[in-house]
């Protein structure tokens, strides 16, 4: 019995198609989300798994999965990334700064931990205890990244009493405050102090001159 030529052509086509078809890559990713400064596990954190591609200058990502950390701050999941794409992961918790995105580089045993900076606030009051002259002033700054306002304020004039309120880079961190006092335009004092801003709280600090 002769097998029709079309049967051989069909088998050949199916073989070539299956050989050229690229299956998704399977990854295994896990890790822990904790708070900076205390190493406290963060339960209920959202961990985003992204499937990304790039055109050479920009990166485009689709959300593939959203995981929720357990009471120990742990997450774990298998993850399928489509052929020609690459996976990334990030963590998000309200009242914390986002983690940024991290590449998932290995197909197995990816342990990617996140340490998140908690929001914290610094309120500085600059108060002149005695009448100031026209050229008397205080310059102050602090070595911390800020979201709002300017990290440097200059207070000049008569009986200065000002509050400056900032959202800092994160709580549980030391912040170096620096200030200079001028009398009649001449520098008469150069001061500094290191303070620690608690997480999810406002630290009130007063500079008197």
Q: Count the helices. How many?
A: 1
Unreliable residue runs: 3-22, 147-151
User: Briefly, what CATH class of the largest domain?
Assistant: Mainly Beta
Report the sheet-strand fraction. over 45%
The total domain count is 2
CATH architecture of the largest domain: Sandwich
Largest sheet, strands/sense/barrel: 4 strands, mixed
Task: Report, as a whole number of angstroms, the end-to-end distance.
Answer: 108 Å
Structural class category: mainly beta
Would you identify the CATH H-level superfamily of the largest domain?
Answer: Transthyretin/hydroxyisourate hydrolase domain
CATH topological fold name of the largest domain = Immunoglobulin-like
Write down the overall geometry.
elongated
Average residue-wise pLDDT: 80
Q: Over all CA atoms, what is the radius of gyration?
A: 29 Å
The beta-strand count equals 15
Helix-strand pattern: HEEEEEEEEEEEEEEE
Approximately how much helix is present in the residues? Answer: under 10%
What report would you give on this structure?
With 209 residues, the protein is mainly β. It is 8% helix and 51% strand. It contains 1 helix and 15 strands. The protein has one helix spanning 5-20, and strands at residues 25-35, 46-54, 59-68, 74-81, 86-92, 102-103, 110-111, 114-116, 121-127, 137-142, 152-156, 161-167, 173-183, 186-197, 202-208. The strands form 4 sheets. Strands 1, 4, 7 and 8 form a 4-stranded mixed beta sheet that branches. A 4-stranded antiparallel beta sheet has the order 3-2-5-6, with no helix packed on it. β13 (173-183) and β14 (186-197) form a beta hairpin.
């Amino acid at each position: 019995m002769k097998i029709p030529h079309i049967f051989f052509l069909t088998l050949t086509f199916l073989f070539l198609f299956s050989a050229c078809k690229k299956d998704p890559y399977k990854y295994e990713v896990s890790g822990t989300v904790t708070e900076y400064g205390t190493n406290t596990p963060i339960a209920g954190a959202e961990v985003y798994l992204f499937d990304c591609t790039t055109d050479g200058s920009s990166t485009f990502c689709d959300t593939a999965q959203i995981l929720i950390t357990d009471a120990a701050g742990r997450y774990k999941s298998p993850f399928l990334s489509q052929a020609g794409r690459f996976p990334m992961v990030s963590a998000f918790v309200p009242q914390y700064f986002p983690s940024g995105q991290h590449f998932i580089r290995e197909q197995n045993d990816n342990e990617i931990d996140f340490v998140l900076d908690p929001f914290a606030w610094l309120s500085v009051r600059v108060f002149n205890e005695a009448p100031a002259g026209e050229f008397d002033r205080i310059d102050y700054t602090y070595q911390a990244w800020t979201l709002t306002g300017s990290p440097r304020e200059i207070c000049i004039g008569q009986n200065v009493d000002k509050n400056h309120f900032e959202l800092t880079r994160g709580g549980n961190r030391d912040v170096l405050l620096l200030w200079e006092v001028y009398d009649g335009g001449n520098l008469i004092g150069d001061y500094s102090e290191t303070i620690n801003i608690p997480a999810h709280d406002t630290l009130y600090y007063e500079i008197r001159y």
